[in-house]
Amino acid sequence: MPKKLFIKTYGCQMNVYDSERMAEAMVAEGYVTTDAAEEADMVVLNTCHIREKAAEKVYSDLGRLRPLKAAKPDLKIGVAGCVAQAEGAEILARMPIVDLVVGPQSYHRLPAMARAAERGEKSVDTDFPEEDKFDHLPDRPAATLRPTAFLTVQEGCDKFCAFCVVPYTRGSEVSRPAERILREARVLADKGVREITLLGQNVNAYHGAGTDGGDWSLARLVRELARIDGLDRIRYTTSHPNDMADDLIAAHGDEPKLMPYLHLPVQSGSDRILKAMNRRHSAESYMRLVERIRAARPDIVLSGDFIVGFPGETETDFAATMDLIRAVNYGMAYSFKYSARPGTPAAERTPVPAGIADARLQALQALVTEQQRACQQAMVGREVTVLFEKPGRLPGQMVGKSDYLHAVHAATETPAGTIAKVRITASAPNSLAGTVV
Ligand code: SF4
Question: Can you tell me the mean pLDDT for 323-343?
Answer without folding.
Answer: 95
